[in-house]
Design brief:
Layout: H1 2-5, H2 9-15, H3 20-49, H4 52-68, H5 70-73, H6 79-97, H7 124-134, H8 137-147, H9 153-160, H10 164-183
Helix pairs in contact: 3-4, 3-6, 3-8, 4-6, 8-10, 9-10
Length: about 180
């Protein structure tokens, strides 16, 4: 068992009877695949989670799942959509596991503030991303799914397991909170 753990990937494939050249070519192809899609997957997770460290973990999980299915995915024209869906689902599952941490809008005691660390005031995208991360989880997730994932209110309600009214309220409150955060 210890000897197997110390084998390199190519040695493992040699012992398993696989062609090393073919496997190395697939590994390089997968590495290129990761480079092409890592920013998109990370941004989906980061927007939903509002936490960059958790988004890194989710991004890694997405690519582990992609690696397991790489042979069937690599020739697919819908790979970007598949990656977004997996990233969205894993991010929502992560939030659901830690739902006790969710702070709903009505529970916020103090108004939210965007950090004044933004060096360039004209960089609205950076300011928007920072403001989105400051939103309470329920508002952030609903807003991101609606505006960045193009999901309908009904789809969001079903995915999150909440009422349609809650989704509409969270999106409305999220927009209002974003307006306040951005105008400060």
């Amino acid at each position: 068992m210890i000897a197997a753990a110390t084998l390199s990937l190519s040695q493992f494939h040699e012992r398993a009877g696989c062609g090393v050249d073919r496997e190395m070519a697939e590994d390089k192809e997968f590495e290129t695949f990761i480079r092409n899609y890592q920013n998109m997957v990370f941004s989906v997770s980061a927007r939903i989670l509002g936490n960059l460290t958790d988004a890194e973990d989710i991004t890694q999980e997405v690519f582990i799942k992609a690696y397991e299915r790489f042979r069937e995915l690599r020739n697919s024209h819908a790979i970007g959509g598949w990656l977004k869906t997996v990233a969205t689902n894993l991010s929502i599952n992560h939030l659901n596991r830690y739902r006790a941490r969710w702070r709903f809008f009505s529970e916020e005691a103090a108004p939210l503030e965007v950090a004044t660390e933004i060096e360039r005031e004209n960089d609205r995208q950076e300011m928007l991303e920072l403001a989105i991360r400051k939103l309470p989880d329920a508002q952030r997730v609903a807003l991101v799914l609606f505006h960045f994932q193009d999901m309908s209110y009904e789809e969001i309600a079903a995915k999150l397991g909440v009422s349609l009214a809650k989704v509409k309220t969270d999106i409305h409150r999220g927009r209002e909170t974003l307006k306040q955060l951005i105008t400060r």
